[in-house]
Amino acid sequence: MQQLLAITRNTFVETTRQPIYSVLLWVAAFWIGFVSPALAGFTLEVGNDKKVMIDVSLATLLLYGLLASVFSASSVITREIESHTVLTVVSKPVSRPLFLFGKYLGVTGAVLLGYYFLCLVLLMAARHGTMETAAEKFDQPVLVFGLSALAIALIVSAFGNYVYGWHFTSTLMAWAVPLVTLALVLVLFIDPQWKAQSPSKDFGDFQLIYAQISVFCGVLILTAFAVALATRFSLIVTLMFCAAIFLLGLLSDYYFGGPALEGRGPLYSLLYAAVPNFQYFWLGDPITQQLTIPGRQVAAVAGYASLYALAVLALGVSLFQTREVG
Questions:
Q1: CA 121 – CA 184 distance, rounded (Å)
Q2: Rg (CA), the chain
Q3: Which of 36, 40, 111, 156, CA to CA, is 20 to 30 A from 83?
Q4: DSSP letters along 252-321, please?
């Protein structure tokens, strides 16, 4: 257990300090917080702007999970194998399955941290909404608390980096995540007119939160594929394979599910069961169509994602066992 925790902790720290990790995170945060609400204001249909914003933002979360997991896995696994530094770990009494599982937990933890921050940004943006008409006013509590939290985190990180030599990007995340969390909590208790409100008024039905959790379940599978493929392939090849699996999973119902139900042959049924169905994780359509997402649906999706991720990691272990690292 100590070996597993050590590998997980080192992988987590190394991943969060990667420049590409911070670039993907802050580009996605800017897109969700500012670009997506602005673009959604041009639907020219009253009441539809916020739905489009949420739909685009959830798609951004899924795309961030795909890119962050691939780049992070390639940075901490492929690079170590190619530079032969992994030999110093597996030559000690550390088994390869333990090493790979620790890497997966570390990468997943780093992706989860960034994903959680983006979920906070999405909730703040959803609370603010889109400016459908010129008469609408800004949600001042969202802007004041949210931007103040980011400003404080930026100032502290810059000061710590200049005076004490702290790592800027990791320090920025360490301050931004709790401060933005506090900002969201304050916003939930204050309405746009600076009056007290019930904290369950905005997201008490948990529908948007359920959709965010379901999307992250899909990210878990993508991360497992990224870690497994990174044991054998380079960054570009891993990205291509993960993107292909992602696109094939989105079209699984059309290419495999329909023919399987029509009884065209056992091959379609086998492929439909083997290929991850990412439509299970996409709950943006029920939200935009004002359908209710039950909690048991999210629990079932989480169980499916966990079992599938373990199966992919088992495949990754078999690939890594015969990989020459010396």
A1: 9
A2: 21
A3: 111
A4: HIIIIIHHHHTT--HHHHHHHHHS--GGGT--HHHHHTT----HHHHHHHHHHHHHHHHHHHHHHHHHHH
Cβ partners under 8 Å of residue 104, min gap 6: 223, 224, 227, 313, 316
Dihedral Cα 314, 317, 318, 319, nearest 10 deg: 120
The residue written with tokens 């925790």 in the block is 5
Residue 9, number of CB atoms within 10 A of its CB: 14
- Residue 43 carries which DSSP code? S
Which residue bears the tokens 């299970």? 280
Residue carrying structure tokens 């996409």: 282
Whole-number Å distance between alpha carbons of 23 and 21: 6
Which residue type occupies 3? Q
Residue 31 token pair: 């897109």
CB neighbours of 302 closer than 8 A, spacing ≥ 6?
213, 214, 217
- H helices within 75-231, ranges in order? 79-82, 87-90, 96-128, 140-163, 168-188, 200-203, 207-230
* DSSP assignment letter at 196: B
User: Over the stretch 83-130, which tens digit does the pLDDT of each residue have?
Assistant: 777 777 766 777 888 888 999 999 999 999 999 999 999 999 999 888
Answer whether residue 164 shows pLDDT above 80.
Answer: yes
Two structure tokens written together for 103: 């890497």
* Reduced 3-state DSSP string for 118-148: HHHHHHHHHHHCCCCCCCCCCCHHHHHHHHH
